[in-house]
Design brief:
This protein is an alpha/beta fold and 476 residues long. The protein has 3 domains: 133 residues, Orthogonal Bundle (Fumarate Reductase Iron-sulfur Protein, Chain B, domain 2), CATH 1.10.1060.10; 167 residues, FAD/NAD(P)-binding domain; 154 residues, FAD/NAD(P)-binding domain. The chain has 19 helices and 16 strands. β7, α15 and β8 form a beta-alpha-beta unit. InterPro entries: DPD_II, FAD/NAD-bd_sf, FAD/NAD-binding_dom, GltD-like, Helical_ferredxn.
């Protein structure tokens, strides 16, 4: 019976949830996709081919059991489907919204390769978890027994929060330290509301607080509290700080009006909380009425151009040194940005900036693609004599992020880092310091939220195993 409900990809076309028109979504920061109705979610789930080797699951960093919860959804067993989906994913409602499914699960879907259009895995995952919250299926964190051990987590982003949730379910006492005034890291202050509405994140934070996770906010390690003090307070420590230092442009970018992407996005997200943001109100971090140029080709650049559109920019252009096919950002996001009025200038890179007291233009170099580099992508090469000036009132640098120098900032030279400045760990996420672990971007470099969640869950398992060792020795 179950199989009869599946394999509908030949007769049922792929349908995403309704997408709000560009005219409407340019005016606010609400999510652009509407919710599936229950019948439509079941119909779209029934398109799954239930293939023998589920490449969607293989290419999911969390190894989510996607075919099975699609089958349960098609059968109308939504609670069972939700229970299965959340068994491997701490934050399925977040991944369903912001994961680049076109590069992961959906991009590996067998029926997509056969030309029938991928199963809408992300939209169905979002539908399941939103339904679970609405129906009260999301169970509070209530450990079977409390344990005396405590773990300190530095960083309240997805990696730290995933570990906190797993440790609390095991009864461990968990304290999360974060530099910001709200938990969530980039989920809260980096990703715009049109991709991830902030109540979705705050609801999950409240769920963790209700489950006993303690948050120490507005707390910068190395300034407000020492790293050594945190290690002294807890039986184990997890470093999940992420990477926040913006990569700089060559050729100078000190003119007023040239800003870092994270500063720009944080200001915008703070306004969504009705915070006082003087740099936004003064126009420094506000695109309204300005000719905006964003430099970069990743998902952060996509967030910046689409934010600038919503702030009422006079024009928004993105410069990227390679072509569309070779950019690292999601092609789905590129399409959304184009629909909303962003102009992409491919094979273009900044060579300098014009202006006396503030930026007035970007000197643009035209590029062509040469031989592939070490990553396999064709390297951009300069076209001599093809430079031109692009007028600009606001330039946003979205060139990626680098790790802060934690051993120096925390006065802990024994914390070993790689030549890139990321923390060196072993297969269990353990660092060079006893009882200290690290996960997410501070280990991987700038990466995806879903990888941070995976790291956090794995590190929690390793910490629990370490905490159990003294008890095992005592028992012997």
């Amino acid at each position: 019976m179950a199989q009869q409900r599946m394999l509908q990809f030949v007769t049922r076309p792929r349908e995403m949830p309704e997408k709000r028109t560009p005219e409407h979504r340019r005016t606010d920061f609400a999510e652009i996709y509407r919710e599936y109705a229950g019948d439509k979610a079941r119909e779209q789930a029934s398109r799954c081919s239930q293939c023998g080797v589920p490449y969607c699951q293989v290419h999911c960093p969390l190894q989510n059991n996607i075919p099975d919860w699609l089958m349960l959804t098609a059968q109308g067993r939504l609670r069972d489907a939700y229970d299965l989906s959340q068994s491997t994913n701490t934050f399925p409602e977040i991944c369903g919204r912001i994961c680049p499914q076109d590069r992961l699960c959906e991009g590996s879907c067998v029926i997509e390769q056969a030309g029938h259009g991928t199963v809408t895995i992300g939209a169905i995952e979002k539908f399941l978890t939103d339904t679970a919250w609405d129906e009260g299926w999301v169970q509070p964190i209530r450990p079977a027994a409390e344990r005396p051990e405590s773990v300190g987590i530095i960083g309240a982003g997805p990696g730290g929060l995933a570990a906190a949730e797993a440790l609390r379910r095991a009864g461990v006492q968990v304290t999360v330290y974060d530099r910001y005034d709200r938990a969530g890291g980039l989920l809260t202050y980096g990703i715009p509301g049109f991709k991830l509405e902030k109540p979705v994140v705050m609801r999950r934070i409240s769920h963790l607080e209700d489950g006993g996770v303690q948050f120490v906010l507005n707390c910068t390690v190395g300034v407000d509290i020492s790293f050594q003090a945190i290690r002294g307070r807890h039986d184990a420590v997890l470093i999940a700080t992420g990477v926040y230092r913006a990569r700089e442009l060559e050729g100078g970018d000190s003119l007023p009006g040239i800003v870092a992407a994270l500063d720009y996005l944080t200001a915008s997200n703070r306004k969504s909380f009705d915070d006082a943001v003087p740099e936004f109100d003064s126009g420094v971090l506000n695109a309204q009425g300005k000719r905006v140029v964003v430099i970069g080709g990743g998902d952060t650049a996509m967030d910046c151009v689409r934010t600038a559109i919503r702030q009422g920019a006079a024009s928004v252009k993105l410069l990227y040194r390679r072509d569309r096919e070779n950019m690292p950002g999601s092609q789905r996001e590129v399409l959304n940005a184009e629909e909303e009025g962003v102009e992409f200038v491919w094979l273009a890179a900044p060579a300098g900036f014009g202006g006396d007291t503030r930026v007035e233009s970007v000197r643009v170099q035209r590029m062509r693609l040469g031989a592939p580099d070490a990553s396999g992508r064709r390297s951009p090469e300069l076209i001599e004599g093809a430079d031109y000036d692009e007028p600009a009132d606001l330039v946003i640098k979205a060139l990626g992020f680098e790790p802060e120098e934690l051993p120096m900032l925390w006065d802990e030279p024994a914390l070993t880092v790689t030549r890139w400045g990321t923390i060196r760990t072993d297969a269990t996420h353990a660092t060079s310091l006893p009882g200290t672990y690290a996960v997410g971007d501070i280990v991987r470099g700038a990466s995806l939220v879903v990888w941070a969640i995976r790291d956090g869950r794995e590190a929690a398992e390793a910490i629990l195993a370490e905490l159990a060792q003294p008890a095992m020795v005592a028992a012997q």
